[in-house]
Amino acid sequence: MEGTAQKMLSGFRFSWEPLKEPLGFIRLLEWVFAIFAFATTGGYSGETDILINCSGTTPKAQNINLQFFYPFRLNQISFVVNCLNSTKETVHLVGNFSSSAEFYVTIGVLAFLFCTVMLVVYLGYQHMYHENSQWAIVDFVLTVFFAFMWLVSSSAWAEGLSNVKKSTSPVYILSTVTFCKDVPNSCTPGALPSMGKLNVSVIFGFLNLILWGGNCWFLYKETPWHKPATTQGATEEGTP
């Protein structure tokens, strides 16, 4: 184990040159975009509010402010409507969208870690990468895997975000409050929650899909599956 570590350290040859090539430059973009993808989702918090005026001899207005955040287990968020001369009503938000959100963030973090490792290999062990074809094969296979995972996770999170928007809409929340269905009572929705950050997270997810999918071609050209065919074609062209 110690000998392997010493061999890796002795073989380290740092160079910025790989970043000037499509292989290294695209991997750097993937590294940056992966950070934006999981950061814009995992770091999100928002709020929605409603106003309830209960009818009666002495009406009482309730301004209810609800905060929600990643991983969007909305069914765990509740509030109490307490109208005078009436029974208290506990209302829960609808839906648990943690599975799609956490899956998306997990893929983003894993993609970021994979890009970090491969950038170290590109910048410090480029000679070993080209000498041993196994590096290129592993790089290609894992890139194909992550491209597919970006497709699945981004699609799942796009649908999850649509459901989050619906469940946190003040109009939808008021439709679940029993007191608001009584004609004398007055219920007013507040402003829609700001979802710009989450919209950006979905965009970065599909941008990652494009980057990782496009990078598969450049990585395939580095594998022995492509190079022998190229060599053979060149030989046939040179044959008189």
UniProtKB/TrEMBL annotation:
Coiled-coil annotated residue ranges, if any: none
The MARVEL domain, residue ranges: 18-224
Subcellular location, principal: membrane
Any one Gene Ontology cellular component term annotated for this protein: synaptic vesicle membrane
InterPro entries: Marvel, Synaptophysin/porin
Membrane topology: Multi-pass membrane protein
Pfam family, one: MARVEL
Keyword Zinc: no
Record has Transcription regulation as a keyword: no
Recorded superkingdom: Eukaryota
Transmembrane intervals: 21-39, 103-125, 137-158, 198-220
Record key words, sorted: Glycoprotein, Membrane, Transmembrane, Transmembrane helix
Subcellular location: Membrane
Protein family per UniProt: Belongs to the synaptophysin/synaptobrevin family.
Name used for this protein in its record: Synaptophysin-like 2b
Organism: Erpetoichthys calabaricus
Lineage: Eukaryota, Metazoa, Chordata, Craniata, Vertebrata
